[in-house]
Known about the structure:
single chain; 333 residues; alpha/beta; Rossmann fold; Luciferase, domain 3; GMP Synthetase, Chain A, domain 3; 3 domains; 10 helices; 28% helix
Amino acid sequence: xxxxxxxxxxxxxxxxxxxxxxxxxLYNGAAVYFVDDLSKLYAYMLEVKPTVxxxxxxxxxxxxxxxxxxxxxxxxxQKLKDAFGGNVRLLTSGGAPLPNEIADFFARRxxxxxxxxxxxxxxxxxxxxxEDFKFGTVGKPMPMCDVKIADDGEILVxxxxxxxxxxxxxxxxxxxxDADGWLKTGDLGSIDxxxxxxxxxxxxxxxxxxxxxxxxxxxxxxxxxxxxxISQAFSSGDGKSYLVALxxxxxxxxxxxxxxxxxxxxxxxxxxxxxxxFQSVKDSVQRxxxxxxxxxxxxxxxxxxxxxxxxxxxxxxxxxxxxxxxSFSQKIL
Length: 333
């Protein structure tokens, strides 16, 4: 029997980490190694050599950028496995959409990233299985979990694992259910003909243009991040007739790009002002615009002088952007 080594570094308050990453692994007799210092995350991974690795899309994006910068896009399977310590055989992802380019890159090297979906109030709703998965989806609903799509696109759930109430908050609890007792997830999605669930975006993050057009920003942002120079993308446009975007750079990849193109720089800010890097991001915006309708196209963008930071309240512990806290500079409004 192959022994399983599981690597744990996500916050313990993250329901997927606590239930699937810790309790489930211990229940099945797998060894779980806890990271005590995030600055040593990569060094520990090379030491532990995990066989099973669960993470967030942002981490897989960073691994992708590292492997591509060191070995090119033709890097083989072993080069990719070496980035995880050399022994990895199963990867899972959740918490946010996984860009298609990342999913395809890993899958072509026999390391498909299996996406799953859940929330604190229901733990797990759907997941991809090794023998039954589809990219661009979070898999089929788990056993005993009923899922349907409301008229406005919201994902509704009924399941024995569903929470009963928030502690001493009856009004907030009532807001979580519809008249028939379905749990309102707050996420927008669809179910395809094969029964796979796809997440479109968050209901509260829908952008409403002055034309009345509703736009889910997650699709645009993920398309932009297919350029490995881009670390984060944030689109906005409520009440306006067009969309704008803030973009941040993947520092390691931008530095590698600069060296390859003989671009002189002293710091991250220098990279954000370089014409060749700006053109690469502009090309990504144009490619994204070509794949969406005219109303969904990004008309203006800017590259920030720094990445979004957890310390400034701009990013959650699970590396998702806090969109309400992030304000746009006057330059692109």
